[in-house]
Every structure is written in C-alpha cells, then in structure tokens.
Amino acid sequence: MPIAAGLYYAYSEGGNQGAASTLQPPVILIHGAGSSHLGWPAALRRLPGCRVLALDLPGHGRSAEVGLQSLDAVTERLVDFLEAVGLYQAVFVGHSLGGAAALSLAARHPGHVAGLGLIASGASLDVPAGLLQSLSSPVTYEIGLRQIEARLGGPSTPPALLKLAAHLMRQTRSSVLYADWLACAAYDLRGQVSAVRAPAWLACGTEDRLTPLAFSHFLAANLPDADLQILSGAGHLAHLEQPDALAAGLLAFLRRKGLLVPPG
Fold first, then answer.
1. Cβ–Cβ under 8 Å, residues 56 and 121
2. Which of 94, 135, 161, 185 could form a disulfide with 178 if both were Cys (CB 3.0 to 4.6 A apart)?
3. Are residues 135 and 156 in contact, defined by beta-carbon separation less than 8 angstroms?
C-alpha cells in the first residue's frame, strides 16, 4: 500500500510506460469533501499516456490522521507529498474541495504547479446555510448528510452515482467531513486568482447545485490562462456522470499546453 507524507495514493501509468511519460509532469488527482481516491472514475485514474496519482487526503479513505480544517493546511500537505515521492512539479486536478486545494497550491507555491484541472470548483465555495451547525452535532449529523446529498446530483444524475457518492461520504468519519466543510467555508481566493499563472482547465455541469456554473465562469474570466468545458445536464458529480467527456477534455488541454508528450 503506497503511502507518502502520510497520504495513501493509487498509481497508474495510463498504458504508457515508455521514456516519454517520464518527461512530462504527472497528474495528481485530489478528491472532494467526504470522498477518497475511489471517487474518481477509471477514465481519469487511468488517463491514457499519463502517470496518475490519486490521493486520499488526511482522514479519508486509506489515509490516517484527522481531517484538515483549512485549505492552507491541505496545501502544505500536498507540498510534503511531492517531496516524499520525489517530485517537484505536477498537474493538479481536483473535484470541488480538491479543486480548491489545487488552486490554493498554485497561488501559494506556483513553482510546483505545471497545470490545473478544476472540476466543479471555484475561487470560493458555497456552504449551504446551517450545514456546519448540523454536521457539528451527532444529534443533527444525519440532517447535514441529507442536506449535502440533496445537492449532489442534477435532474439527470443516475441514482446509482448518487448512491456511490453518498456511500463514500457516509464512510468518512463525521469529524473529517465536518473539517472538510469548515475548510470550504473559510476558503476564498477571489482576490488572488488573477495572479495564478499556471494554465487551467475548468469543467462544470450546467445543473451543478453546489458549485454553480457561475463559479467556473468567474474563474474563466479571471485566471490569466483558462479553458472552460461545460457539461450539459451534469450536476456536481460531473466527473462520474460524464467521465469520458472529461477525460477527453483534460487530455486535449494537456496536449495544447505541452504537458502531454506524444509517445515515440
């Protein structure tokens, strides 16, 4: 079981074990609140031609410790992780809270970020009214879970995907999920995104009820180098609802930015 800096990670060569793959920065996947590396579909965990590392943040999945209550703390653990696995730079792709972590890393430690993939994320994150209070007490914790679950999908989200996301979230310790949402509540980079120089690929569903499309439009308008992919009909679980379209969009972005070396 590979662990570095206390973080479990799953590793894939993406079908490319030639010398060319070692010349390009790997892709590091960062899951969202209450999830784990298992929340990523195979289309992204095994991205063709790419070395991919899918992390479990502290307290999530197979990573031990407690949950981190700020994006700054998550950012520093990502720096520690890079050092532990012998990497200096990577393309960081995150869903929701994971996207916020990737963007925070680009703002605080720009040299470590070759590129960004921000899926259903934003420069700030919307925390539903009363959610933190509900998650903070065993008496009302179930109410908080249901409040999150009600916003995960859109009208066309398959029930099986909603069940999977809810299952992963309910496997997460209550203290860890609470820490995730505390981090979301305190996160706000809207005044800093214009200084982020890493090229960014943005993806969001038109039916996202947690990070509405307006969040991605803000990023597209304020990041100096950003491409926006809009997924018609997808909700907050866009990476699960339309994984092949997302994988194709991410690969196209990596090629355009010279971050994917053709085999040869």
1. no
2. 135
3. no
Cα(243)–Cα(240) distance, integer angstroms: 5
Backbone angles phi, psi at 57, to 5 degrees: -65, 160
Q: Where are the domains of the chain?
A: 3-256
Q: Enumerate the β-bridge partners of residue 118.
A: 94, 202
Distance CA(15)–CA(11), nearest Å, equals: 12
CA angle 100, 122, 133 (to 5 degrees): 75
- pLDDT tens per residue, range 139-169: 999 999 999 999 999 899 999 999 999 999 9
CATH code at 3-256: 3.40.50.1820
pTM of the entire structure? 0.95
Query: Which residues, in sequence order, are CB contacts of 171 under 8 Å at separation 6+?
Result: 36
Note the pLDDT tens digit of each residue in 172-223: 999 999 999 999 999 999 999 999 999 999 999 999 999 999 999 999 999 9
Return d(Cα 190, Cα 242) in angstroms, integer: 28
